[in-house]
Write a structure and sequence with these properties.
The chain has 335 residues and is of the alpha+beta class. It is built from 7 helices and 16 strands. It folds into 3 domains: 140 residues, Gcn5-related N-acetyltransferase (GNAT) (Aminopeptidase, 3-Layer(aba) Sandwich); 136 residues, Nucleoside Triphosphate Pyrophosphohydrolase, CATH 3.90.79; 36 residues, no CATH class. The protein has a 5-stranded mixed sheet. Keywords: Hydrolase. GO terms for molecular function: ADP-ribose diphosphatase activity; NAD binding; NADH pyrophosphatase activity. It comes from Auxenochlorella protothecoides.
Length: 335
């Protein structure tokens, strides 16, 4: 069966690339889908009698990549030709080979140097998945008789807010220079977006430091809010957190590029402001309950997940610690 499948694949490739003599070279660094039946991905080049000049791109090569855990292929960006004509030809040959070998999903990452190849990939059946400053990710689901289960792009952006109260029972507040509250004189808690790869606890500490110059440490997650249609059709997840400031920090130095001003305001004065929305009032109720000790919110600890070497951030309620906080050692939690 394997020999028959390889023979059929060879036939498909030869029909795709024409009758001119070719030979297959196996790059040691490539790892194709195992269904191809080879230990590394083939790269088709001209035979020695018709080799192109050194340094020039050769057409009709199989694009190299590595197989994933879902019978798909993640292409190696280094294997993608820059020439639109070479890219289009190589992509056609590769897709025919992948379909014949039972490959399902294909992930193609194109850097800015290959931006001119994007339209050709879309013409071949690829769809946009997401984009970053460094690349555009495209995907293609090869089976024609099965709907694509490829995961969509991230659906949410993540934001944080910080409830910081000092020993004088003053709350840290800011007025925004930019955004929907610009010029309205509205006092609010410091907020900001989480950077990729950053824990929400770290993001809250960073935002407070950047916006106000105040050093404060995470203590609890007090509330979470989800909203839709916020950022170009994406949803938004917002975490309100309590931070404890280092004592003796009276001077506030605000971030002039983003804020009109920042200050310590008596908590009762802030609660009494007429600009609070119903949502803000509910959030403030959680803040006040935390402050008087009737509400603890969620702990946050880094935990070994068991699936990878790194640790994940786990948020959990006080009832999870039936044995008290000393149970952290038994659970493998890291403070």
């Amino acid at each position: 069966m394997a020999c028959a499948r390889l023979a059929a694949l060879r036939s498909v490739l030869l029909r795709s690339i024409g009758a001119s003599p070719r030979k297959i070279i196996w790059p040691a660094t490539s790892r194709p889908h195992p269904a191809l039946g080879f230990s590394s991905a083939p790269r088709l080049v001209e035979s020695s009698s018709s080799m192109a000049a050194a340094g020039t791109e050769v057409s009709c090569g199989l694009l190299a990549g590595r197989h994933d855990a879902y019978d798909g292929i993640i292409l190696d960006p280094e294997s993608i030709p820059q020439s639109p004509a070479t890219f289009t030809e190589a992509l056609q040959v590769s897709m025919a080979a992948w379909r014949g070998a039972g490959v399902k999903g294909v992930w193609m990452r194109l850097p800015p140097t290959h931006a001119h190849c994007i339209g050709h990939a879309v013409d071949a059946g690829f769809e946009f998945h997401h984009a970053e400053k460094e690349y555009v990710m495209l995907t293609c689901w090869l089976p024609r008789d099965v709907p694509s289960p490829l995961p969509p792009n991230a659906s949410h952006q993540v934001g944080v807010g910080a409830f910081v109260v000092n020993e004088k029972r003053e709350v840290l507040v800011v007025q925004e220079r930019l955004g929907p509250l610009r010029g309205k004189g509205v006092w609010k808690l410091p907020t900001g977006l989480v950077i990729a790869g950053e824990d929400i606890t770290e993001a809250a500490e960073r935002e407070v430091g950047e916006e106000t110059g105040i050093k404060a440490k995470f203590d609890a997650v007090l509330a979470m809010r989800q909203a839709h249609g916020v950022a170009f059709g994406k949803s938004d997840m917002f975490f309100l957190m309590a931070l404890k400031p280092e004592p003796g920090q009276e001077k506030v130095s605000f971030q002039a590029a983003e804020l009109e001003c920042a200050a310590w305001m008596p908590l009762d004065d802030y609660v009494a402001l007429p600009t609070h929305t119903p949502l803000n009032l509910r959030l403030m109720n959680s803040c006040l309950a935390y402050l008087d000790g009737s509400y603890r919110g969620l702990w946050a600890r880094r935990v070994q997940s068991g699936f990878k070497a790194t640790q994940d951030l786990l948020m959990f309620g006080e009832q999870s610690l039936s044995g008290g906080r000393d149970e952290d050692a038994w659970l493998g939690l890291v403070k």
